[in-house]
Specification:
mainly alpha; 12 helices; globular; 0% strand; single chain
Length: 304
Amino acid sequence: MTHSEPAVQPVASADGSTAAAVYSAGGGVGSTAVPAALRGKPTGPVSYLWNFLGKTATIGEWEVRKLRHDITDVVTRTVQPMLWLLIFGEVFARIHAIPTGNRSYLDFLAPGILAQSVLFMAIFTGIAIIWERDLGVIHKFLASPTPRAAIVLGKALAAGLRSLPQAFIIYVLALILGVHMNWNPLALLGVMVTVMLGAACFSTFSVLIACTLRSRERVMGIGQVLTMPLFFASNAIYPIAIMPAWLQAIARVNPLTYEVDALRSLMLTHSPSSLGLVTDFTVLVVVSAILITIGSWVYPKLVQ
């Protein structure tokens, strides 16, 4: 691949992100060339593992680098969580309509809104995949010796890294609103890991949708249809205990429930996990691993 290849300009996607910004092997904007780090071939088991991790990191870095050229996606997505905390949270904290034990409703709500923000950002990853297919980027990825699992895992990693600024913004807003935050360094690290796992889970789910539907309009429509049921059928804005039995059953199999439970335990002071942190992390890791495995199998079908 040479640098004389015709330039491709970034294209704004329908959900507000610059999904089609691509980079040359040397790191410059405007080419659909596959990064040089993706072209190496492993020669043994250890070399294969190191090569796999290196290519996963390269895909992740390649995706995150887009934020340097367009941060509007992060900025615009802070509006909705701010509205939830400032309006919904403040109102329901005053009327005491939802039982939250000895905690204020804002304390209870803040981790759920962080999980919601991660979900809403990750669920539209599939739209960027469609843009990459239309630009021919996916064809070049598939022509390179990069393992399919490394491509999908790299995109999941990038979704997690892109969600960390959202966590920072919500932390600042929660601090301003007087939420009792846990500032233990291990808890903060746990929040970062939980955010990245949640983003990886739902972004890979979005990739599966994109590989199945293969249309930006359909992916956006399905994404909008799924986000609210996932959000409301979880413990993000009310406890599972007050749900009807049928909704409790759905909440128990909803990965967002386990993400919220982990965030609530780690973000707030003296807030034990109701489901168990080990259970929360196990569910998120297992679901993400299953989705990444399926995603690596269906990813090539996107160009068929």
